[in-house]
Amino acid sequence: MNKRQFLGAAALAGAAPAFAAPGAAPAFAAPGAAPSGPALLTVTGNIDRTNRGPFDPALDQMMHKQKISFERAFAFDYAALERLPAATVRPTLEYDGKVHSLRGPLLLDVLAAAGARLPDTARLVLRAVDGYAVTISVEKARRQRFMVALQLDGKPMPLGGLGPLWAVIDADRVAELASKPVEQRFGECPWALYHIEVQ
To answer: Which of 55, 78, 146, 176 to pair with 94, CA 20 to 30 A apart?
Structure first.
């Protein structure tokens, strides 16, 4: 699949309605069912569900270059992420100093859909396509309400911008961050997120 097809599929998936009712159990592909669209996020590590094969050094080239390896993984396409219950936040972004609306599922809901074991002491490695990675605790992800943003101001985020996925928080409303200059609030928020390892 070429880049144009990939981005077109992601954009079309972003236009599909979400069918999860408020308070409903997260909707996700059944174990063993591969995503119907291109996988945008792969979760590995301490998880109970899998819907793709183990790491393949020949075909998983970006992961290979970033020294990622795994036996079990759960992959999400855009539609699967969009079916999860979503939150909306309105932080001031460092890139233009303006308030923007971000919408997507909470990070821990995404991981729960992959069957992740999530004690507060577990650690999460969030990795972007350029190799930028941060490690946070589950406790911090819960306390700061990390989300996997799918939309910026009501539109899917393009690859080459902040998307298609962004691990982000409502930094204006996180006490230990709101007092910092805006350009220092998002260091643990990789945009172009594509891989999460549950340790």
So the answer is: 78
